[in-house]
Design goal:
- Keywords: Cytoplasm, Hydrolase, Protease, Thiol protease.
- This is Pyroglutamyl-peptidase I.
- Pfam families: Peptidase_C15.
- Removes 5-oxoproline from various penultimate amino acid residues except L-proline.
- It is a single chain.
- The protein is α/β, with parallel strands linked by helices and 209 residues long.
- The chain is 35% helix and 21% strand.
- The protein contains five helices and eight strands.
- α1 links the parallel β1 and β2.
- The protein starts with 5 loop residues before the first strand and ends in a 7-residue tail after the last helix.
Length: 209
């Protein structure tokens, strides 16, 4: 295994509700075609819109790949821009998933903090990508919506001590194509990796294995 390569996992969600084709998974597949450069080992996964699957899948991705970064992508019917989510929330999960299930506790991790922020400076990512001439509008948000997106993000942030990101994309054609979204994801994730590697250059490394 080439240790100089960074491992990055990007997930999109499967169909739910009126989203019979989920723009997030289309965007992730388009990004996979583009890749993240030769020094990044990119793995993509489609996540079903089910709380219990997320509970087992997210930890298994961290354990299997030991990634530098995990980026979850979801669709928001209200979004008109690509939205970088700053934090995940622990409580307030009352919406039923595709299996008509929601957690009894209505929370992600019992006893976990109410909110976990990503270690990635989303404002900085937003600014850099917005000025890069990509032709896709990017914004920042502090509310990932208290459904599977937020739930997945919080779970990942909790497991990774903040080395996760969440990106909301608008539905296809409103206004961007899958290819547009894929190009934007590529640029955004590359910026995130750049910021993480800069941070690692300034922070003494703590190995915990």
């Amino acid at each position: 295994m080439d240790n100089s390569k960074k491992t990055v996992i990007v997930t999109g969600f499967g169909p739910f509700g009126e989203h019979t084709v989920n723009a997030s998974w289309v965007a992730v597949q388009e990004m996979k075609k583009l890749g993240l450069g030769q020094d990044v080992d990119l793995h993509v996964h489609e996540v079903p819109v089910e709380y219990q699957t997320v509970q087992s899948l997210v930890p298994s991705l961290w354990e299997r790949y030991h990634p530098q970064l995990v980026v979850h992508v979801g669709v928001s019917g209200m979004a008109t821009t690509i939205t970088l989510e700053k934090c995940g929330h622990n409580h307030g999960y009352t919406g039923l998933d595709n299996c008509r299930f929601c957690p009894d506790s209505q929370c992600c991790i019992e006893g976990g903090p109410e909110c976990i922020d990503s270690v990635i400076d989303m404002d900085s990512v937003c600014k850099r990508v917005s000025t890069s001439g990509l032709g896709v509008a990017v914004s920042v948000s502090k509310d990932a919506g208290r459904y599977l997106c937020d739930y997945t993000y919080y779970t990942s942030l909790y497991l990774s001590r903040g080395r996760s990101a969440f990106i909301h994309v608008p539905p296809l054609g409103k206004p961007y194509s899958g290819e547009d979204l894929g190009r934007a994801l590529q640029a955004i994730v590359q910026e995130m990796l750049e910021l993480l590697s800069q941070a690692e250059d300034t922070i003494p490394c703590e190995h915990e294995h």
